[in-house]
Amino acid sequence: MNVTIVGGGIIGASTAYFLSAENVNVKVLERDPTYTEASFGRSCGGLRHQFLQEENILLGMYGSEFVRQFSKSVQFTANGYLMLFNEEQKAEQTQAVITQGRCNAGSNTIDASLIQDVFPWINPEGLAMATYTDTGIEGWIDPYSLHTEFKKKAIAQGAKFIKQDVKSLDDVEDDIIVVAAGCWTGELLPDIPIKPQKHTVFNIKCPVHMPDMPLTADFTTGIYWRPEGHGYIVGSPNGRFDQEDLEPDWNDFDEDVWIPMAMRAPMFEQLKMENAWAGYYDTNVLDNNAVVGKHPKMDNVYLASGFTGRGLMEAPGIGRGLMELITSGEYQSIDLSCFDPARVLNKEKRLEPYVI
Ligand SMILES: Cc1cc2nc3c(=O)[nH]c(=O)nc-3n(C[C@H](O)[C@H](O)[C@H](O)COP(=O)(O)OP(=O)(O)OC[C@H]3O[C@@H](n4cnc5c(N)ncnc54)[C@H](O)[C@@H]3O)c2cc1C
After folding, report:
1. For the CA atoms of 222, 343, 283, 226, what is the dihedral angle to 10 degrees?
2. How far is CA 76 from the centre of its chain?
3. In the sheet where 223-228 sits, what is the strand order?
4. Whether the CB of 227 sits within 6 Å of ligand 1
5. Which pLDDT value is given to residue 337?
6. Measured in angstroms, how far is the CA atom of residue 255 from the centroid of ligand 1?
7. 351 burial class (0-12, 13-18, 19+ CB within 10 angstroms)?
8. Neighbours of 222 (CB within 10 A)
9. Which ligand 1 atom is at minimum distance from the Cα of 201?
10. Given this model, what pLDDT does residue 38 score?
11. For the packed helices 54-70 and 311-328, what is the interaxial angle rounded to 10 degrees?
């Protein structure tokens, strides 16, 4: 069996790894082997289990389990995630925690009145509940290290990575094509509603250094932050479409980031913003959820994108799932059929809330 993967980012490299492990002949066509604008290299490296939908929970769990065993070169910082919710979000999040419990995702729930017993640096004003993990199962990695290992191992198993800018799928000659072109998927498959959405992340320094802090996501404002080296990184809550370059949105910092962040964690009242970068989310504008599987209108074309802020952590499970689908005709480990491209063509929403 011959498979050509268009796009050699984290999804393409993972898929190449899993397919080549099954002796499939794999070619990966990548237009920029330096990956300058690829989303994986501009991500925050986070791996979490805490989602609403079972498939995203299971993909998150597989991703963090996988990276902890895959290679010593992929260092996992196991600080966990802390997620904060208001009264309006409580019912939905309570449902999410029930599904997480059914999946053994390891998350805990606390009422807002008790948050400071566990996280004394959080101001609970406006919060109703928090969920978190504290057993080393969620955290973050250096995204490049995972990509390098996938690529290196795929090449050792026979996969070929070739520099090529694919202008049209008609130019690709192979039994099977996998489109793993990230936020640029719509350029090759215009009927798939995935668009680049620019997100900015700031590097800050703060006199209070808390290296064990979890990745903290305040869903009342959409801001998230985590320790990085001797400082922290913090993500702007704003995502913007139709942005031609990746210049960070510097103006977000003062009003949309610093003020709400210092309100939630007063230790950040004193800080210095030192730098910033931006990257594109591969956003599925229909419902923020992945689009994975065989294109219903094309015989030999599969795709995987639309991860909307989750593509790094889901890459191991997606690569394995695509390998199962392509080599055996069905999913064997995690059933990913809910992400089938027919869903988006039929405009059937399956919303995953709380995107960060
Ligand atoms: C600021 C930011 C923070 C994030 N934080 C996280 C996080 O904490 N955790 C998480 O799981 N995810 C996170 N993400 C999301 C994650 O980075 C993406 O979902 C993931 O990288 C998608 O992987 P991909 O391989 O589909 O796309 P990419 O990594 O973008 O790779 C796609 C590749 O396809 C190539 N390509 C495109 N079109 C063509 C073509 N026509 N011909 C040849 N090659 C082509 C591109 O050059 C690129 O290298 C974040 C993203 C951003 C921007």
Report:
1. 40
2. 15
3. 108-111, 129-132, 81-85, 215-218, 223-228, 231-241, 194-205, 272-284
4. no
5. 97
6. 28
7. exposed
8. 17
9. 1
10. 98
11. 100
**Binding site membership of 289 for ligand 1 (Cβ less than 6 Å):** no
**72: exposed, middle or buried (Cβ count in 10 Å: 0-12, 13-18, 19+):** exposed
Q: Answer whether 155's CB lies under 8 Å from 147's CB.
A: no
Q: Is the CB of 181 under 6 A from ligand 1?
A: yes
The residue whose CA is least distant from atom 14 of ligand 1 is 309
Q: What is the pLDDT along the chain (356 residues), one digit of tens a residue?
A: 999 999 999 999 999 999 999 999 999 999 999 999 999 999 999 999 999 999 999 999 999 999 999 999 999 999 999 999 999 999 999 999 999 999 999 999 999 999 999 999 999 999 999 999 999 999 999 999 999 999 999 999 999 999 999 999 999 988 899 999 999 999 999 999 999 999 999 999 999 999 999 999 999 999 999 999 999 999 999 999 999 999 999 999 998 999 999 999 999 999 999 999 999 999 999 999 999 999 999 989 999 999 999 999 999 999 999 999 999 999 999 999 999 999 999 999 998 888 88
Q: Would you state the pLDDT for residue 77? A: 97
Q: Which of 6, 15, 39 to mutate to test the pocket of ligand 1 (most atoms within 8 A of CB)?
A: 39
Query: In the chain, what is the greatest distance between 2 CA atoms, to the nearest angstrom?
Result: 61
Q: Quick count: other Cβ atoms within 10 Å of Cβ 340?
A: 17
- Nearest residue (by CA) to ligand 1, atom 37, is 181
Q: What pLDDT score was predicted for residue 139? A: 98
Amino acid at 179: V
Give the ligand 1 atom nearest the CA of 164. Answer: 43
Question: Which among 318, 334, 336 is positioned nearest to 19, based on CA atoms?
Answer: 318
* d(CA 280, ligand 1 centre) in Å: 7
Distance 267 CA to ligand 1 centre (A): 33
Looking at the CA of residue 13, tell me the nearest atom of ligand 1.
25
Bridge pairing between strands 25-30 and 108-111:
unpaired
Written as one letter, the residue type at 269 is E
Distance separating alpha carbons of residues 104 and 37, to the nearest angstrom: 36
